[in-house]
Amino acid sequence: MEAGSFTADFLKQNHDLYSAATNHSFIASIRDGSIDAQNFKLWMEQDYHFVREFVRFVASVLVKMPRDSPECDVDIILGGITALESEITWFRKEANFWQIFLERVTLLQPNKDYCAFLKQLEGSDTPFTVAISAFWLIELVYCVSFMSCLEKDAKTPFELISTVKRWGSPEFHDYTLKLMKLVDKALENASKDEQKQAHEACVRVLELELKFWDMAGFVLG
Ligand SMILES: Cc1ncc(C[n+]2csc(CCO)c2C)c(N)n1
After folding, report:
1. Which CATH number fits domain 6-217: 3.40.50.2300, 3.40.30.10, 1.20.910.10, 1.10.8.1000?
2. If you measure from the C-alpha of residue 221 to the centroid of ligand 1, how many angstroms do you get, rounded to a whole number?
3. 32 within ligand 1 shell (Cβ under 6 A)
4. Which residue puts its alpha carbon closest to atom 4 of ligand 1?
5. Per-10-residue mean pLDDT for the chain, 221 residues long?
6. Alpha-carbon separation of residue 180 from 55, 124, 148, 164 (angstroms)
7. What is the value of ipTM here, to two decimals?
8. Is there an atom of ligand 1 within 6 Å of 207 CB?
9. Helices 15-22 + 128-147 axis angle, to 10
10. 209 is catalytic
11. Which contacts qualify for 149-158: CB closer than 8 Å, 24 or more apart?
12. Domains of the chain: which residue ranges?
């Protein structure tokens, strides 16, 4: 089989897992309007803390970028960091609306596991190529998942529209395409070992995304 780009090959080879992570029942419950507010609040509490760890992760990706990278490539990651500030402000505002106390949240195990994985990627043992691949896929899963909640026949509740628009918007999709191009460029000339490591990190991302959705969709007793 002739090899295409890393990202296209990855998505083809891991179609079922990717599809499970981007068509989860939690997202389906937002899309069809049946979501329980308790589940949404649980997701928001946990995701805020995930995003806080993600800030450090993205900073580490920027530091690992090769010095001879074109400025426009550096600026894509810089844009990602900048966007995180408004993201955090949005979480705080939204948490207020839902009467969530973000400081009092206890991290659940799937979130702890995901944050531990990010920490591992932040380490100097993880090459840039591997970190940027995981970065792309983490953003893509959210983008594709939330895009489905904006389709014509979706019945997303009014109070969740601002949430799904954040990550399901065409602008956010463009950003994931830019990340995808960065990944493919970085991995084109990488060693077989780095390509394998990047593939494994991406599989792990999909597994962790699935568990994160499972956690959010868990029916509270
Ligand atoms: C579990 C989980 N997976 C992926 C994302 C996606 N994501 C991480 S940071 C960020 C802000 C923009 O870069 C976005 C959309 C998430 N939030 N939570």
Report:
1. 1.20.910.10
2. 27
3. no
4. 138
5. 86 98 95 94 96 98 97 97 95 94 95 98 98 98 97 95 94 97 96 97 98 86 45
6. 19, 22, 20, 21
7. 0.96
8. no
9. 50
10. yes
11. 149/27, 149/30, 149/31, 151/31, 154/31, 154/32, 155/31, 155/32, 155/33, 156/30, 156/31, 156/33, 157/30, 157/33, 157/35
12. 6-217
Q: Is 47 in the pocket of ligand 1 (CB under 6 A)?
A: yes
pLDDT of amino acid 218: 79
The active-site residue, picked from 45, 94, 122, 209, is: 209
Could you tell which of 27, 40, 43, 51 is best to mutate to test the pocket of ligand 1, judged by most ligand atoms within 8 Å of the CB?
A: 51
Length of the chain: 221
- pLDDT at res. 221: 45
Annotated binding-site positions for substrate: 47, 87, 139
- pLDDT at residue 219, rounded to an integer: 66
Q: What are phi and psi of 81, to 5 degrees?
A: -65, -45
